[in-house]
Amino acid sequence: MSNITVTHAESGLVHAEVVRRERITPHMTRVTLGGPDVARFEFRGFDQWFRLALPIGDEGALDRMPQRFGFGGYLSYLSIPKGQRPVVRNYTVRDYRESERELDIDFVVHGSEGVAGPWAARAVPGERVALIDQGCGWRGLDADWNLIVADESGLPAALGILRDLPRAATGHAIIELFDERDRQDVDAPVGVEVHWLVRAEAAEPGSAALPALEALDFPDGTPYAFAVGEQALAAGARRHLVRQRGVPKGGVTFSGYWRR
Ligand SMILES: Cc1cc2nc3c(=O)[nH]c(=O)nc-3n(C[C@H](O)[C@H](O)[C@H](O)COP(=O)(O)OP(=O)(O)OC[C@H]3O[C@@H](n4cnc5c(N)ncnc54)[C@H](O)[C@@H]3O)c2cc1C
Asked: Best label site of 2, 3, 25, 88, fewest CB within 10 Å?
């Protein structure tokens, strides 16, 4: 579930190749993409996200990917024969360096299931991928303060938003991880307090963040809230904010980034 509005930049389908891979924390792999076409990517910061197309076998199938991933684009994607059709997953731009034409993606290392997580864990320089920009979910609504709730899959989004918020912004960011060692440096406005939480081993995602949200002493006024991560965390945060705290529905952006 999500109420994020998709926007498509003019860049359309951008081709890229793996430049390097680095394990930045025990459960986060950073894959840096580059190549001449990446110069066309329009970086907007915050939690900007995109559809990442990973080839299965034939890299040439990436050339058949649509320019957009709306309804028409999706139908054209489905017309690529199964067995050649690239796998598409959603990811966040962790950072973009225009001068070097480099784009970083932080992938949660979540085991051998799925495609994108395992791909990132073994990606090698030169491998081709493609991406289609989807814009930012963060709407930066005019509010008295800001609230961010995220798990490890939303860490790139949370850190990007904190980095790009006006320095006078105030509020709270609640970030839940499953391993304390996956914390990263934060560049946040001084008025935004960052609460790092670690859920118990094998506990449900959200089992640390949601009680912390419920116990949070809310500043005066109405927040603009952004809640992303495992489906139960994102939906639970939204439910609490709307039902218990009286935040207008339109003041909560939320998205289930993955489903347990
Ligand atoms: C807008 C948006 C931005 C996102 N940005 C990022 C990002 O920057 N970094 C990032 O790591 N993820 C991000 N995600 C989440 C990512 O798209 C999902 O985790 C995706 O399912 C991973 O694909 P996969 O092929 O590895 O696994 P899938 O094939 O989708 O799933 C295979 C299995 O792995 C499990 N699984 C999937 N993801 C996780 C996880 N994170 N932890 C534990 N188990 C998991 C599933 O429950 C399933 O059982 C984002 C999602 C959205 C919607």
From this structure: 3
Per the structure, the complete domain to which residue 57 belongs is given by 13-135
Q: Could you tell me which residues come within 8 angstroms of residue 150 by beta carbon, excluding any fewer than 6 positions away?
A: 157, 158, 173, 174, 175, 176, 209, 227, 228, 229, 233
Q: Is the CB of 202 under 6 A from ligand 1?
A: no
Which CATH number is 68's domain given?
Answer: 2.40.30.10
Q: Atom 19, ligand 1: which residue's CA is nearest?
A: 258
Please give the tally of structural domains in the chain.
Answer: 2
| Confidence grade of residue 19 (pLDDT, cut at 50, 70, 90) | very high
Cβ pair 27, 142 in contact under 8 A? no
Choose among 72, 74, 68: nearest CA to 134.
Answer: 68
Rounded Cα–Cα distance for residues 57 and 121 (Å): 17
Q: Which residues contact 91 (CB under 8 A, 6 or more apart)?
A: 49, 50, 52, 105, 107, 116, 131, 156
Residue 1: which pLDDT band, with cuts at 50, 70 and 90? Answer: confident
**pLDDT one-digit tens code per residue, 55-82:** 987 888 999 999 998 899 999 999 999 8
Residue nearest atom 5 in ligand 1 by C-alpha distance: 91
Ligand 1 atom nearest to CA at 137: 1
**229 C-alpha vs ligand 1 centroid, how far in Å?**
9
Residue 55 lies in a domain: yes
